[in-house]
């Protein structure tokens, strides 16, 4: 197990985010001082979940206001930090202006944070939250890969401003990070590439895309069935653990695919059947591809016909052996992730029986 350095503060950007919440919880419980950047320090409502953890944890949290698009806005927060966790990045599938809503904040934000790391002498390691979206664009892309499996060597070459702009934003931001890292010798960069992150949140009223998916499985939206869509899934708590290991394992280097399971939407829903099948209209079957192609874009404007054509009916396979071997990750069972997540939505009144 890696040894956590409790003496030096760490910076976590995007502190109110889904992954950041669990990462900060683990850091505070380990006795670390966390410099947490948020867009608005005055918005106490968004910070109450972190404050509740900090009250009883041995570590300390300090908030700093910073903006991804403002040069130098991370300088104060980064002071004296040895590790920088850059988790802040917009995750929205439906946007009106991809360039300004996704690409600019992802790329410019990465540039700002990593440039500041080079200007801050204490920084020795940067851990960047990227995504498997920077590795592949559509499931159809996997047919061009050896054994049809996604590995850390692969880069997403099929996404663009007009097709999968979110995936394109993650790809461009990560490329920018490697470019900056290679032009300095002060700190090392380790990149975390999670697949679809699921599981309960520190802030139970998150607006992450993962919440939309699990809510629709339980509220009747997907009652008729789900697309036959292969996907990788990982527990948010395992993603937080991967960040910690990436920060404090001396030999950690390069990119790490963080994915517990090669699965499908139907298989994800099946994990909920034993406990919740009687009381909730969970999806039980796969919809024919032509039907998804026909009505998908009307039900979900983010799901274009091209996306449906390139993903439905294709399996997804990711290789997570590097994360297990080098970061020592042990992945939670898919059933635990799905059931814990579903239970949280019920407890917080976001799903009615």
UniProtKB/TrEMBL annotation:
What residue stretches are annotated with the NAD-dependent epimerase/dehydratase domain? Answer: 10-249
Q: Which UniProt keywords apply?
A: Oxidoreductase
Q: Mind telling me which Gene3D superfamilies this protein's record contains? A: NAD(P)-binding Rossmann-like Domain
- Whether Cell division counts among this entry's keywords is no
Task: Give a yes or no for keyword Oxidoreductase in this entry.
Answer: yes
A Pfam family hit: Epimerase
The record ties this protein, via PANTHER family, to: NAD DEPENDENT EPIMERASE/DEHYDRATASE (PTHR10366), VPS9 DOMAIN-CONTAINING PROTEIN (PTHR10366:SF812)
Q: What is this protein called?
A: NAD-dependent epimerase/dehydratase family protein
Q: Which organism is it from?
A: Vibrio rhizosphaerae
């Amino acid at each position: 197990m890696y040894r956590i350095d409790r003496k030096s503060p760490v910076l976590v950007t995007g502190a109110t985010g889904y992954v950041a919440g669990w990462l900060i919880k683990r850091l505070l419980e380990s006795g670390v001082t966390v410099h947490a950047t948020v867009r608005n320090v005055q918005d106490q409502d968004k910070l109450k979940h972190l404050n509740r953890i900090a009250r009883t944890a041995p570590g300390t949290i300090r908030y700093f206001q910073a903006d991804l698009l403002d040069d130098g806005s991370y300088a104060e927060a980064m002071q004296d930090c040895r590790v920088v966790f850059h988790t802040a990045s917009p995750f929205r599938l439906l946007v009106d202006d991809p360039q300004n809503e996704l690409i600019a904040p992802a790329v410019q934000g990465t540039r700002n944070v990593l440039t500041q790391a080079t200007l801050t002498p204490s920084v020795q390691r940067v851990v960047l939250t990227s995504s498997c979206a920077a590795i592949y664009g559509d499931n159809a892309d996997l047919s061009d890969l050896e054994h049809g499996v996604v590995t850390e060597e692969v880069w997403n070459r099929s996404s663009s401003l007009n097709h999968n702009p979110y995936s394109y934003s993650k790809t461009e931001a990560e490329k920018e990070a490697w470019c900056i890292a290679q032009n300095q010798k002060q700190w090392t960069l380790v990149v975390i590439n999670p697949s679809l992150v699921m599981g309960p949140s520190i802030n139970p009223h998150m607006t992450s895309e993962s919440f939309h998916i699990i809510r629709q499985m339980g509220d009747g939206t997907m009652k008729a069935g789900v697309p036959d869509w292969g996907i990788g899934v990982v527990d948010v708590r395992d993603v937080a653990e991967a960040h910690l290991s990436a920060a404090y394992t001396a030999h950690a280097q390069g990119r790490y695919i963080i994915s517990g399971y090669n699965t499908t939407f139907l298989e994800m829903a099946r994990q909920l059947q034993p406990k919740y099948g009687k009381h909730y209209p969970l999806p039980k079957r796969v919809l024919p591809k032509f039907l998804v192609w026909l009505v998908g874009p009307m039900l979900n404007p983010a799901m274009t016909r091209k996306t449906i054509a390139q993903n439905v009916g294709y399996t997804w396979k990711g290789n997570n052996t590097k994360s297990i071997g080098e970061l020592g990750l042990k992945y939670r069972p898919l059933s635990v992730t799905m059931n814990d997540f579903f239970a949280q939505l019920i407890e917080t009144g976001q799903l009615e029986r």
